[in-house]
């Protein structure tokens, strides 16, 4: 019984310390990214769904605005098919694609009233690096962009949880995509469409900086009309 009371007290203490953003936050993340299809001239490719991993450093200027530097990576099966291929048909070519995003961008947060949760959304710009394995010499880099949204749940002065959804996209590299090894007789070279994938992530929030001051809601000043002048009564 005493242990239960002590645990409840610690939990209440953590909750009471909520909404404790710090100036610098380290956020390791792990999640799942859905598949995307790339349509070429007479073939199409599929970048399959798989798990992703990464993290971010977020520099908070106040409780409503910050700047993040993020990394997101995944190793996914990539397959190339001829148009007209039926379900179960073997792909023309198959490899494992390493997709790595390095980006940065602003993040806006909105603290919920009387809550330790904060909603956020942000946008990122940067680069995406594609590396078909095991042919690492055929990698490409391209311009990348991303959008994210989610919620932060602060459990302590420098600790919390993050749940987010993220859309990551990359434009086609100017050199195109090459499927196959160097000198591979059945290699394929395409200038094709960009990649666009959506995924969900969960992560930890580890505060590394100073605790940000609590947001003070500005007080409203209402206009008060001056009291009416006293009425004078005359008696005759």
Q: What does this protein look like?
A:
By secondary structure, the chain is mainly beta. It has one domain: Porin (Beta Barrel), CATH 2.40.160.20. It is built from one helix and twelve strands. The strands form two sheets. It has an eight-stranded antiparallel beta barrel. Strands 10-11 form a two-stranded antiparallel sheet. A hairpin with a 5-residue loop joins strand 6 (about 95-110) and strand 7. The longest helix is centred in the N-terminal third of the chain and has 15 residues, at about 1-15. The radius of gyration is 27 Å and the shape is elongated. The N and C termini lie far apart (about 85 Å).
Rg over alpha carbons = 27 Å
Q: What general outline do the C-alpha atoms trace?
A: elongated
Instruction: Label the structural class.
Output: mainly beta
N-to-C SSE string, H for helix and E for strand: HEEEEEEEEEEEE
CATH topology: Porin
Calculate the mean pLDDT score and round it. 80
Total of domains: 1
Question: Which residue ranges are poorly predicted, with pLDDT under 50 across at least 5 consecutive positions?
Answer: 1-18
Strand order of the largest sheet: 1-4-5-6-7-8-9-12
Helix content: under 10%
Q: What is the correct CATH architecture?
A: Beta Barrel
How many beta strands in the DSSP annotation? 12
Strand content: over 45%
